[in-house]
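Escalation from tier 1.

The customer reports that the assembly of two entities below gives different structure tokens on two consecutive runs. Tier 1 could not reproduce it. I'm attaching the input and our single run for tier 2 to review.
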Amino acid sequence: MANPMKIRAAVQGDVTDVRVLMAHDMETGLRKDSSGSPIPAHFIQLVTVKHNGKDVFSAQWGTAIAKNPFVAFKFKGGKAGDKIQVNWVDNTGDTRTDETTIR
Amino acid sequence: MKTLKALVAMCGLLIAANASAQSAVSEEFQKFRSIMEEDNPAELFEAIGEEYWYTKAGPRNASLEACDLGLGPGVIKGAYAQMPRYFADVDQIMDAETRIVHCMETLQGFSHEEVTKQPFSNDKGTPNHVSVLTYVASQSKGMPIALPQSHPKEREAYAVGKEMFNYRAGPYDFSCATCHGTEGKRIRMQDLPNLTTRDGAAKSVLGWPGYRITGGRMLTLQWRMNDCFRQQRFPQPKYVSEAVSVLLTYMGVTANGTMYTGPGIKR
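Tier 1 run:
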């Protein structure tokens, strides 16, 4: 089971600053464990961020993203109290969605 | 004579240049750390630890809510910055990590072997007590380090810890003080704090527990102390040994009065 994300969203003027910290192993598939057998690839492939149900950010990720990834971006049009929903899907089909409101 | 003077002057310049290059590199490391600290993945472990604190688990199906961290059952705020301290119920000095392990045994009914079978974070994951410790530590963010020294056992722990810190032994005839007893020492590019001074000792408390970027692991002071013993080629202490609590008491008391900044990030 995937662990929760930490999401922060704060509005200043008309620009909302979103910061997301995700808990994920992001294994490349190229590493070996202590017994020498390869650790299977396990990484986030798709990240989607919705603002009040409407897409404001999406990204396709690969194995070059570090463990426990951090994403920050800004968008226009958010207001305090609006909902920010972040979703990721990884290569094993595992997914997690977390939500916060804009401060 | 003239050439000798010039040579001496040149040597002086070279040394000065070397020293400023050294501090410039340290500054770059410092900048890197402060950028990373803004979004420290330690927060992910805080969240897991917080959830575990309130979750019923173990043979007794109990949460850790009644755990006494020295300020009364269930009081977390500021507890980490005041540990290690004396606990009357066990009549010994315990650091935060030892106390959390103790609570998991006494409240939740886990056996000592069960809780400590994986003491530190590794490839297999982060043990619950490490996440709980990270949560507890986060609740002392911005508070002054204030280890009590009122109980005789606490004063004894400080004295014994100081002795351990200065005790030279092992194949290299090393003590903690060999590396951490004077100003301006370093290993490769790492500046070594002088742990016998207040500001130096603060560096041994600050940033722990810490998220190490290499490997993406949450590591604790107990782990760090074990690593110190390993580097000195000493036998490593048993997990949550009182010896480690006592050593942490010496360093913590020396750092008293400085600000604890919460879980940190390591390179």
